[in-house]
Amino acid sequence: MNKKVVIIGGGIAGMEASITLAELGYHATLLEKSHSTGGHVQDWYQLFPNRRPAKEVLTFSELRMEGKVKTINDADIIEIEKNINDFRILLRNGKLVVADAIVVATGFDLFDAHRKEEYGYGIYENVITSADLEKRFSEGKKILTHGGAVPKRIGIIHCVGSRDEKSGNNYCSKVCCVTGVKQAIEIREMLPETEVFCFYMDLRMFGRHFEELYKESQEKWGVNFIRGRLSEANENADGSILLKVEDTLAGKPLKMKVDLLILLAGFVPSGGTKAIGKMLGLPFGDDGFITPKDEHTSTNLTDIQGVFVTGSCTGPKSIQDSIADARAAATQVANYLK
Amino acid sequence: MKVEGKRLIWKDYQKEIAEDKFFYVRSCIRQTFFPGSEWAFLKIMKEVLGKDVYENPAHTTCTGIGYHSDIVPFDTTMTVVARQFALMTEAGYQNLVPSCITSFGLYTEVMETWKHFPEEEKKVREYLKKATGREFEVPKNLAHASDIIYKFRKQIAAKGKYRLINKTTGEPLKVVEHIGCHYAKMFPSKGVGGAEYPYVLTGMVEDWGGEVIDYPERRHCCGFGFRQYLVKANRGFSVACSKKKFESMAPYKPDMIITNCPGCPMFLDRWQYVISEMEGKTYGEDGHGIPVFTYEEVAGLILGFDPWDLGLQLHQVPTEPLLNKIGIPYDPFKKYLGKNGEDIGIPIKPSMLNTQ
Amino acid sequence: MIDFGYTINTDRQIDYDANDHRMSHFILSREPSYNLCIGCGSCTATCSAGNFTDFNFRKLHLMIKRGEISEVKTKIQKCMFCGKCLLVCPRGVNTRNLILTINCAIDELKL
Amino acid sequence: MTFDLFVLPFFLGLIFLLVVLGIKYSRWINALPKADILKIRNGIFSRKFFLSIREIFFESLLHRKMFKQNALSGWMHMSFAFGWFMLIVIGNIESRVYSGRHVNPPYYPIFLKFFVHDRKVLPFEIYTVPGFFRFSMDLMLLLILSGLVLAFIKRQHSKWFGYQRKTKQTEFDRFALTALWFIFPLRLLAESFTAGYYLGGGFLTNSLGWVFSCFLPVEYLAYPAWWAYSIALGAFFVTLPYSRYMHIPTEVLLIFLRNFGIKTEKNFNSFSEIEVNSCPRCGICIDTCQLNTSACIHDTQSIYFLRSVRQNEVKQDVAFDCLLCGRCQEICPVGINLNAIRIAKRKDIQTLTPNSYSYLTPNQPPIVDVVYFAGCMTHLTPSIKKAMTEILDVTGVKYSFLDADGTVCCGRPQMMAGKIDAAQQLMDYNKTLIQKSGAKTLVTSCPICYKVFKEDYNLNIQVLHHTQYLWQLMNENKISLKPSEKTVVYHDPCELGRGSGIYEEPRQIIKSIAGLMSTEHEKADALCCGGSLGNVQINSKQRNAIQKDVLDELQKFHPDTIVTACPLCKKTLAKGSEAKVEDIAEFVCKALQPTANKKIRKEQFKSLTKAELIGLAIEKL
Fold first, then answer.
1. Hey, is the C-beta of D404 within 8 angstroms of any chain C C-beta?
2. Looking at this predicted complex, what is its ipTM?
3. C touches which chains (3+ CB pairs under 8 A)?
């Protein structure tokens, strides 16, 4: 059995799918468009809910990939040709990869916070995104305002680019809530003198130990939560940010000055997801993510024989979910090829 | 503040503005509020820029005030608007230039409605035909008068005698730009620079030598909001809105406010007087208040028009301090002389605002 | 001064930075569970006093957090201290001690 | 010879002590409320007076209660108290016999052996007068020394004496303690040395003296020893009024006053002061306190609270960190009114804004025979309400459900928090309602309410907790119940059991329809469920810890049902219980025999009250 499976996308889902397939005895080839595998997880500092270093999860996958999975980085797919019983994948560098089955694991991009103009990302220096913050954390940088001062108060805005018709995304990105809570705790741990305020619509603590983390953030770390969506952020003369929200539990509008504003950017289907989906002619949902064959029973299958989907290309997923989903996809591939 | 960040956004909001041949429709209230402004616009367009601007005395209100006060139904509004279009078509023009921000918003609203619901347009064409026998074409280009001035801001600057610069210090004047809500808040893509960081006035100020200040309540409404000021009982809310803005801009010590809406200059100007008379609180240096201008007035001043011809004597907040800053000459004795020199009478001195 | 027949409306907005947060800090230092409220409103729904008046412990507690404490003193007097709120709170907020501590704060901070 | 310089420390110490006590006691007694002073007047030389003396003998001297709890600890205390007392008594008689005088200077008996050492007696010669005295004096000394030895052992192995935790002593108490410990060994030495030289002692001092004299210059050592003895006594007397040993004399006073019927009520008065000073800081209350045994709170127990009261530094968080379960009060060997004192102090330290319940305006309730008041907590355990109304319907008694739509709190929680005025307002409201209803009986489902209705409302009608009422109904055959095979443990609610002394009714009811299993802690010794409203300090984790331990005990023998008689206990226990937790009302309701006329009665009753309701809603009293 020397069937070939090509996994498109070297994020955590793609890696896990390729490992599982390799372990099942298939020739797994992983195509990654960037220089290295690992996807977004490379950029994260600590993972919710237990705040273990993200690197651990990466190495866990990388070690298991060694020698089993053929990885092609900088793989820019320009064409996928479907034949009766195989696929021919043409890369920009002229390489041709043949596959009996394809697993699409092209994942997500973070919502471009610039598009939420009224929040002033890219315009006010003291407005950053959750990803920027993760970057600062993992680079071991201090959390300072643009002026180089220790922020006295930090605001964290939930649902930026999620659950927002105005930014064209009606769906919930699932993981931002708990990410916000995690980052709030990390900030309080680093800067005990700094107040942290989370502005949320609902706190969707769907996973195991998420709610507990939320409670811990209040009880142990004194993180504050205000229910209300940011309407607009403005810059004060001193460069601090003036927030305007409605405290919906108080039933009153509220304004508050923060020295640093963090936007929890949501998920959007990645460029790769759109491109590959198009090449393969996969159906997209109104949210722009790929729609699998059946939303309950065949979440990894598509209408095209031999094409499988996994990870965040079919909608926002946590790392846990992605890994589980990837393994599920692999078994589906195995069923198909045997 | 990263200006390059704003420029990125401004790039996304560039609208097409016609070169020439404009059909001009006036605002209902401006002639009474700041009559010099529309005069100045026409003078600049025709005499300074040599453009073809036509206006038909038969044109009417766009019904904006009535519409936004829930008095006039949308069908009526659309038909009235259609009539304006008809006048334009009959005159052989295709580029509509409203003087009023609300009209601009309303025309946009009507045109967008027709784009999405052609049946509405069909219906309105019938209405208009039945009522007046007129027919019309939808304007090829709709631009607010401030968009036009924005488009030609550089020429104006080039031809200008003065710049928005403090002649004694040589520093650029600190200018608060205030955009009428109906300009882009309803249809961001229809405004130069969009709704959040509009560029239309900022562009003028930049090119005329001034420096725009961005203050926290920049986006806030002036408080005009038809329902607020039309009903006396609600006016307290209208003043409160203006006050919120003044309180927010005061720390930046602005030299002047520039606006592109009929209502805003009126209320930002008059409410300063009201606030001072109610609470004794005045803004701007030595209790002069912060002078408020329409963009036409500013353009006129830049080009060296006589302040009194521009109707600056109708401002509640004295404009002289600013004229002095820029170094624009004026004859204080002519301030209250009307056409061919007859005395129009000096208003009562406010007790708080310092009018010298 | 002129009477224009109307006055300038006061702002309903909570000005967090201008407000007085001493009471909030006082309470937090004495009753850590103060921070655990998730605004579910169980306390208010079951409240004996709330059955007869507009006494709303959830909101009172929230307003203190926001520094809006002008009405606390009069509102808190309506509480019967019966403890039903304590029994229903899903987050284990020690509501009765909060009531006591709010009283102490009013007294010690001369509010 | 009847005087020597060395007696001075003792003598002055004694005078100092008597003066201080004199002042303190007279102050306290004068400060008592008129009524109490009257009680004292009537008390003196009445039967109560002699009862008190008996109690003092048994408790203050023999420490009977102590013996009951732990023999070793009992012996230790008894040996000190009784032994010392006897030394004084016998010593006095002896000194009279010797001196032939009726009045001797107070130090004379104490140092008799120093002044009188002329007559030689044999070690065990007890048939002669001097022999008898010396023998018994030495015997008493030996007795005390045995206690002293135990005291030393206790320092190391307090567990053997039934103490789980050592008490945290103040420096001052330690000093007094050391002084006390030195007294009798020094007396032993002084007397032995003297005896060793003059052979004037009893079997103990003589023999010990003889031993010493073999290798020590006893004739030179005796005198310094007497000095040391006197100094030790003096030091102890001077420190006594300011140390925990103040309890020794004060407890005697307390016993008298208590027997005269004086007790701490709503206010902290000088009697409370006497009670506080009677606390020996034995620490038994620490071991019995569930905050200590279950929730790891070691510094708020009565012993420490009373100390803080005595030192005038009561802290709010200590005062309010108590379940008011009354277990310590139950076991306190001195019988101090611990709950009352704590509540009274809560009142004093509070600087709370006054409550105002002006929003409560009592209207006219229906006229009935029985008023049923469920109580706040019961509204959160509707099954109890339902059961009670069902039972009441069956009995056909004419009743009204006073707080059917939302309760006005009974006032007890405010009272427990020391907010008496607030409580009074609520009580006045409820009282008016109850009186307007014209009922002859008030039945409540909540022991917390029951206690306050019974003790503070002074409604002159029958006030019953539903346990009592149900038992009454059963005896009057108003309800008939069918027995079941169920095994049941009963959890005594604090306010009902220790609080109101109701232990039997619930047990009788259960026994009559199911098998009642007993538990380790029962009745007066029963544990608190942890839900108590008395404590406002502990957090939910600590509450759960207490609740868990209680449940472990209740479920030890896997009963089918845990029955209790308090909505708060039920709610608290039900959280973590595997066995079903039921209120006794539910338990009874389930056992109800279907009676034919149940339905009809219900109808009659319903229509009746409806009519009245409408009628009475209009005309107000």
1. no
2. 0.88
3. A, B, D
